[in-house]
Amino acid sequence: MLHFNTMSFTLQRQPYVVFGAGKVSLLPELLGSYGESVVIVTGGKTLERSGTIAALYERIQRESTLCRHVAIDGEPSPEVIDGAVEACRDSGINVVAALGGGSVIDAGKAVSAMLPSREPVERFIEGLPGYCKPDGRKVPFIAVPTTSGTGSEATNNAVISRTGKNGYKRSLRHDAFVPDMALLDPELTLSMPVGLTVSSGMDALTQLLEALVSPDGSPFTEAVALNGLEYVAAYFSRACRNGEHDIEARSGMSYAAYLSGVALVNAGLGIVHGFASSIGGYIDIPHGRLCATLLHAATAENIAILRQQGIRGDGVLASYAKAGRLFAGDTYLDDDEACDALLEKLESMQEELDIPQLGTFGFRNGDVDRVISRTRNKSNPAELDGNSLRRILLQRL
């Protein structure tokens, strides 16, 4: 435990949060508080599939002077963001709202950030040639997640992707890009199919666990991550089994996903998300599926390295052990037993939830070295060399 005379950390600001079943009905009123010229960002077929969102959109159209609609299919590319901004820039937009999964919210966040600019979004994406730090100007932004996974409603970045040989998956980031408001209505997640429930839930679990053991964490992020993991342990399986009818389980996972965003933006993430960047820019694989397939192998490698170093007590293994006790439902396990219980749980989830391996998405042995050379290991709790990274990937080919 840190003593107050040695404790030092900073916290990102958070959005104004409105949470609860049925609260999405407040969206037109909340938009109107910013002005009458709005941009609504959704998934490509959201208005066709969701009667609730279609009805909301019609109401917003009636109550707004100007209402633009941007449809996003898949993860946002630079071309998609630039096209949406160009179509809306000269319309005097007062507010942007995104209703959808993580990719839709990231797209809305990027449109909000780029509307005041005359530059292409690629100029402001971290790690690209000629990178220029954003100045933080934006149009007010409201995030309305319809999945329970990415936590993008609580973060200061938007992930932009280009897939292919020279592809990338990197962030448009500024402290000001945290949404102004997050409207979290678990009723919107009731219709998520099982596959999406699994992948989004595993994304939230990965973010909570990586933030929990991050060397850049704090007592605050530990408390947030553990609280989120408690809700995942209680509700994730229920949401996967009977999510269409279980508003309690959906509420628990919506809350856990939000906390995963709070934790990651303040603590950073580990090697699974390092791989998500390098692999996700190379092959077309849904982010949540990638997290799901690598989480057990990466956690096992971290724990093995830390055990080799003989680190015990109040260190990272003790944090892994706290998570293990939560999932095992046994507070009396010692640290080694609890770490083993965590690994057993992650492995069993992989099997029970039928998590696909990397090869299913076209990743091959010959791609391993290329990915390792492009993978960053910034906030991982253990120092992993190329051999460690290779072991993680080869286990999941």
Name the descriptors:
single chain, 397 residues, alpha/beta, Rossmann fold, Dehydroquinate synthase-like, alpha domain, 2 domains, two-stranded antiparallel ribbon, 8 strands, 11% strand, globular
How is this structure best summarized?
Helices cover 48% and strands 11% of the residues. By secondary structure, the protein is of the alpha/beta class. Strands 1-8-5-4-2-3 form a 6-stranded parallel beta sheet, with helices on both faces.
SSE topology sketch:
Elements: E1 16-19, H1 27-32, E2 37-43, H2 46-49, H3 51-63, E3 66-72, H4 78-88, E4 95-100, H5 102-114, E5 141-145, E6 157-162, E7 168-173, E8 181-184, H6 194-212, H7 219-242, H8 247-267, H9 271-280, H10 287-308, H11 316-328, H12 335-352, H13 368-374, H14 386-395
Parallel strand pairs: 1-8, 2-3, 2-4, 4-5, 5-8
Antiparallel strand pairs: 6-7
Helix pairs in contact: 4-5, 6-7, 6-8, 6-10, 7-8, 7-11, 9-10, 10-12, 10-14, 11-12, 13-14
Task: Explain the overall architecture.
The chain is an alpha/beta fold and about 400 residues long. The protein has helices at about 25-30, 45-50, 50-65, 80-90, 100-115, 195-210, 220-240, 245-265, 270-280, 285-310, 315-330, 335-350, 370-375, 385-395, and strands at about 15-20, 35-45, 65-70, 95-100, 140-145, 155-160, 170-175, 180-185. The longest helix has 24 residues, at about 220-240. Helix 5 links the parallel strand 4 and strand 5 (about 140-145). The protein has 14 helices and 8 strands. The mean pLDDT is about 95. The chain has 2 domains: about 15-190, Rossmann fold (3-Layer(aba) Sandwich); about 195-395, Dehydroquinate synthase-like - alpha domain (Dehydroquinate synthase-like, alpha domain), CATH 1.20.1090.10. It is about 50% helix and about 10% strand. The chain is globular, with a radius of gyration of 21 Å. It has a 6-stranded parallel beta sheet, sandwiched between helices.
